[in-house]
Amino acid sequence: MDENGAQVATAGLFSLGGGFLWLLSAAIQLGCIIHVVRTGRPYWWILVIFWFPLLGAVAYLFVEVQPSVGKIDFRALLWRLKSPQQRIAICMERLQESDNVTNRLATADELHHARDFERECELLGEGLSGAFRDDATLLMRLAEAHLQAGRPDEAGRILAKTTPDQSPDQQMQFALLSTRVAAHHDRNGETEKKFEDLIAKKKSEAPRYYYAEYLMRNGKREQATQLLRDIIKKYRRGTPVWRFVERRWFYASKALLKTAQ
Question: How far apart are CA 90 and CA 94, in angstroms?
Fold first, then answer.
């Protein structure tokens, strides 16, 4: 190959290398932007990533993604890669080997995620015996399952014989379940005040989410939509800790908002 040919070949390699780096940079940008949208990060990150292609993406990965990498539970990640039915089967097997509250609640969680509320009710009901006949955690989980199955009256009967402990979290959970049960029989808007009192505590987005659900069920679609959008906006503007704790309500609000639209 003569000198001119070598120069052309070298230029071609540099051109291919430059094209590959451009594609790689664009792919990283796109991946970061998708991550911003899907995981509820603040939207201003999109501008940073777009205007500063490489530097912006690196900053996003360092500030938003890297802190959570160390918290990743790879066992939990592998667990989530299994199908719902596989997870339920494994949990059922563990429960048969060791019938305790921890395994029962874990199995109930998987049935709940699979929206198999009938089996969840049956499973939780079977655990209410012996020393755990009056267990507040099991009773409230059973009431929740009946609510999800469309049986608010049965949920109300269960809550009537439930005595929550004095912990703030369980008191809040009991109050919210009681309000949700009452909302199914509310004809004069009396439940709205109960929801507002729970929302004022600002401990979680759960009361606002279920209030939006109540509004939706009662034909107040526009008000419910505004509330759901505000939950999503607050989540995006929240601290990493807030986003970690309230992630469930972010995704639930997005799903309910789709039905509203």
Answer: 6
| Measured distance CA(57)–CA(25) in Å, rounded | 9
**238/167 Cα distance (integer angstroms):** 26
CB burial string 17-46: b at 16+ within 10 A, e below: eeeeeeeeeeebbeebbebbeebbbeeebb
Structural domain contains residue 180: no
Residue 250 CA to residue 64 CA, distance in Å, equals 17
Of the chain, the end-to-end C-alpha distance in Å amounts to 66
Pick the closest to residue 217 from 249, 195, 246, 247 (CA basis).
195
Q: What is the pLDDT of residues 130-172, one digit of tens each?
A: 889 999 999 999 999 999 999 999 999 999 999 999 999 999 9
Name the residue range of residue 29's domain: 3-70
Domain presence at residue 32: yes
For residue range 177-194, list pLDDT tens digits in order: 999 999 988 766 778 899
Domain membership flag for residue 195: no
- Split into its structural domains, the chain has a count of 1
